[in-house]
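Writing this down once: the sequence line spells out the residues, with the fold written below as integer tokens. I am pasting one below:
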Amino acid sequence: MTDSCPSPFSKGYDRYDTVSYTPYSQNIPRARRHVARLVVGWGHPGAAGDAALVASELCTNALLHGCLRDRLFRVETSLTGASLRIAVTDPKGERLPQDRSADADAQFGRGLLIVRALVDRWAVEHLTVGKTVWAEMAVPGRADA
């Protein structure tokens, strides 16, 4: 038996990053900027804006509907071939994302619509404690290839 976690590269990722954040609103722009920097650094600057927006929406949903005080939420970003995956894990598995209709003047209710418009697929994984909401988008070939 080993004390180490399995390498994320054993899942076939070309690139992988994970960061845990405290459940405070100031961490949403931090996560958004971090994902954008990763995507640019991984050779896909054209996808950085959409990836940042998806990360922001998933993190906002986690903060509003899935976080508990003093429990972290995690943002995992990975690249496999030409597919970029952004996954946000929070501790409330019983609060699942739901499509909502928002009035024109409503402040909330459009996050999943935005995510669906930008990604190729998304889903929810139920965990023993909590859930992970992930989204994948195709990215063009590397700029430096």
In short: The chain has three helices and five strands.
